[in-house]
Design goal:
The protein has 121 residues and is an all-beta fold. The protein has strands at residues 4-7, 10-13, 18-24, 33-39, 46-51, 58-60, 68-73, 78-83, 92-99, 110-111, 115-120.
């Protein structure tokens, strides 16, 4: 089992940057696929970015390709989401998630509590 705690959200102007961090507990963190999801008011939760346990395989939603970068540090039990060129439509609650799977686009098993990202235009 793994517990996840996100940080780094906040208010930023359009065009700005934020880096979200997710701290994971558990000795088997490196075996989990990790993902960042977001949910905006009135919308379904969507997978924004995912990274395999090795870090070699990544996935990005079309809406964030070229602007967001997911990375992980297995030695520190951390996963990050660097968000650049932020747009108002990126405003959402962002969740860190872990999956017992080798696939990035899969069902995720563990979730953090979420961190709010608000982009002002």
């Amino acid at each position: 089992q793994v517990q996840l705690v996100e940080s780094g959200g906040g208010l930023v102007q359009a065009g700005g940057s934020l880096r979200l961090s997710c701290a994971a507990s558990g000795r088997t963190f490196s075996s989990y696929t990790m993902g960042w999801f977001r949910q905006a008011p009135g919308k379904e939760r969507e997978l924004v970015a995912g990274i395999s346990w090795t870090g070699f395989s990544t996935y990005y939603a079309d809406s964030v390709k070229g602007r967001f970068t997911i990375s992980r540090d297995n030695a520190k039990n951390m996963v990050y989401l660097q968000m650049n060129s932020l747009k108002s439509e990126d405003t959402a609650i962002y969740y860190c998630a872990a999956a017992n799977s080798r696939l990035v686009r899969t069902s995720y098993d563990y979730w953090g509590q979420g961190t709010q990202v608000t982009v002002s235009s």
